[in-house]
Every structure is written in structure tokens, then in C-alpha cells.
Write a structure and sequence with these properties.
- The structure is a single chain.
- This protein has 321 residues and is an alpha/beta fold.
- The protein has one domain (3-209, 267-301): TIM Barrel (Alpha-Beta Barrel).
- The protein has twelve helices and ten strands.
- The chain has helices at 30-42, 58-67, 96-110, 129-141, 155-168, 191-198, 235-239, 244-251, 254-259, 264-272, 288-294, 304-314; strands at 3-5, 12-14, 16-19, 47-49, 76-81, 115-120, 145-150, 173-176, 201-204, 278-283.
- It has an eight-stranded parallel beta barrel with strand order 3-4-5-6-7-8-9-10, surrounded by four helices. The protein has a two-stranded antiparallel sheet with strand order 1-2.
- The two termini are 32 Å apart.
């Protein structure tokens, strides 16, 4: 497993990180989730990403239990705050009360005394950015959070946060967590350039496009039984990719993957890691063997000719904005 620095910091993260958005506490039971986490550790993954809202807070608890007993200094633990975690008016958003209380709740569920990275899960236009950043800064100063990041923020929002933090002497964000894959390239035009200028890395989710880039979804055929497209939290996200034009183009990636001596999933994960602004690609898994397959994308270099072949095949189906 290779490691990369996160932003302009001393924090190193594994090129491939393990995330539990729609697996832990949702698709798979705790024993299977623990087996996947252990497989990730065995394969050299040191970075684990979750969020307080995943599976109604159960995902954090499952991950905390799975990592219990593993030396805390041997892995990096990330979680997020923003989405509602309760019925109250202050159980959501990026106000000081919700950030501080959610951080404490996440620490309890994750069975740890600190978070390596605490991320704003979305931008909150209803709260002054100064309040949000100062609440995060207070957690850093208290030693409960080491670094702060964001998820799915625009270039303008990232730039504003960096400017305000500089003006007020607050801890700066070091990362953004966007969706990014061969098919979904919306960050390339503005977010990546703004992040590079600010010294911020991307930790990308859905590098396999919710499983579409594995090639298991075929044009003109119903989704495989038990797949992400048939129900659960992932069904909404994958629906926009399940059209025959996209699925047919993905099938044309098979000879390219074969020429690179990679599986389709490995090719997809390796592709996002060719972007220098990407520090880590988040993978999920419902079985340990999926982890073992996907980690083989770490350290892979795809030559320019192969990258051009990918672009040519997907030219008409890439989402860029």
C-alpha cells in the first residue's frame, strides 16, 4: 500500500481508504463488516472514513467496534457532520451546537478520544462560515480533532473558508471529499484547481461509480439481484448512471482493463489515483474479497496512451458539470 500526504500537512493517508457509507449497519451485518475491516487492515489500508448520519449513526458504532483493540496510532479515522442525526432543530447543520455535540457523540460511537479528520459533510448556507470554522478550530485546540476537512464543497466555498481561516487565525481545512470517477468528473474544472492553489487534497468517494464501472450492469438487462441498484441507500445515486449509453460504453472498457492486467474495478480505482490532487480513493465492501481485489489498484501507473483510450471510449457519457 502506498501513502500520500493530505494537503500541505504532515498527515499521511493510504492511497486507498475504507469507507462504510452503505455497508456497515445497512447492507451487511456487524460480523461481516468486521471481516471487511480486518481485511482492509491486512492489506495495508490505514485510513477509515465514515459519517455520523450513515445508517442512522449505526455505521460509526460498527466501525468503532471493528477497530477496537487495534493500536490507535496505526490508523487514521475520519468522520463527518452536517446531516440530521435527530429530530431537534439543532440536530443538523454546521452551527456550533450541532458540531460540538456531534463530535462528542461520534467519539463515543467510534470508541476513541480523537478524530484524525473531522469533515463538514456539506456546506451550510444558513450558518455564518466564521461560526462553523471557529467551532472546528475549538475542537482542534481541545485535542479532539487533529485536522478538519469538507465534503462536496464548491471551489468558491473552499476558497472562502481558506480566506476566512487565514484572516481569523483559525485552523485551515486540508481536504475535500467529492464524488469522482471516470464517469463523474465535475471537480476537474474548478474544485481541483482551487484546491491545488490552497494546498487542499481530494479524498474521493465512489471511484467505481457505485459499482457501474465493474461492468456488472449490462445494457438492456435488469440489475443483478442483490446489487446496489435494487434497493437501499445507494439506489438513488446509481440510478442516474443506469442508462444504456453509459452501460454500453463501460463494457468497451473491458479490453483496456485486460491490456493493463487489471480488473474493471481495479482500473477504475487506479484511474482516480492518477490525479495528483487525489490523496485517497474510498472503497466500500460487503465481502473481504472485494477489499483484497480493489487494493491492487494502489501504486498502479496508467500510461498516457491508455488514459486516452479510456477518454475516447467514455467521451459521450462523461459528466463534467
Amino acid at each position: 500500500m502506498k501513502h500520500r500526504r493530505l494537503g500541505r500537512t504532515g498527515l499521511s493517508v493510504s492511497e486507498i481508504s475504507y469507507g462504510n457509507w452503505i455497508t456497515h449497519g445497512d447492507q451487511i451485518e456487524a460480523d461481516a463488516a468486521t471481516a471487511c475491516v480486518r481485511a482492509a487492515l491486512d492489506e495495508g489500508i490505514t485510513t477509515f472514513d465514515t459519517a455520523d448520519v450513515y445508517a442512522g449513526t449505526r455505521a460509526e458504532s460498527v466501525l468503532g467496534d471493528a477497530l477496537h483493540g487495534v493500536p490507535r496510532e496505526s490508523y487514521e479515522l475520519f468522520t463527518k457532520v452536517y446531516w440530521p442525526t435527530g429530530p431537534g432543530a439543532n440536530d443538523r447543520g454546521l452551527g456550533r451546537k450541532h458540531i460540538i455535540e456531534s463530535a462528542h457523540a461520534s467519539l463515543r460511537r467510534l470508541r476513541t478520544d480523537h478524530l484524525d479528520l473531522y469533515q463538514a459533510h456539506r456546506y451550510d448556507p444558513t450558518v455564518p462560515l466564521e461560526e462553523t470554522l471557529r467551532a472546528f478550530d475549538d475542537l482542534v485546540r481541545a485535542g479532539k480533532v487533529l485536522y478538519i476537512g469538507v465534503s462536496e464543497w464548491s471551489a468558491e466555498q473552499i476558497t472562502d473558508a481558506v480566506r476566512i481561516a487565514g484572516e481569523l487565525g483559525l485552523d485551515r481545512i486540508i481536504s475535500n471529499q467529492p464524488q469522482y470517477s471516470m464517469l463523474w468528473r465535475t471537480i476537474e474544472a474548478e474544485v481541483v484547481p482551487a484546491s491545488e492553489q490552497a494546498g487542499i487534497s481530494q479524498i474521493v468517494w465512489s471511484p467505481i461509480a457505485q459499482g457501474v464501472l465493474t461492468g456488472k450492469y449490462l445494457p438492456g438487462q435488469p440489475p443483478p439481484s442483490g446489487s446496489r441498484a435494487t434497493g437501499g441507500a445507494g439506489a438513488t445515486f446509481i440510478a442516474r448512471l443506469l442508462n444504456d449509453d453509459v452501460l454500453a460504453a463501460v463494457q468497451d472498457l473491458r479490453p483496456i482493463a485486460a491490456d493493463a492486467d487489471l480488473s474493471m474495478a481495479q482500473l477504475a480505482v487506479a484511474w482516480v489515483l492518477q490525479n495528483d490532487n487525489v490523496a485517497s480513493a474510498i472503497i466500500g465492501a460487503s465481502r473481504p474479497e472485494q477489499v483484497r481485489e480493489n487494493v491492487k489498484a494502489a501504486g498502479v501507473t496508467l500510461d498516457p496512451a491508455l488514459l486516452k483510450r479510456i477518454d475516447d471510449v467514455l467521451a459521450d457519457v462523461i459528466q463534467r458539470s
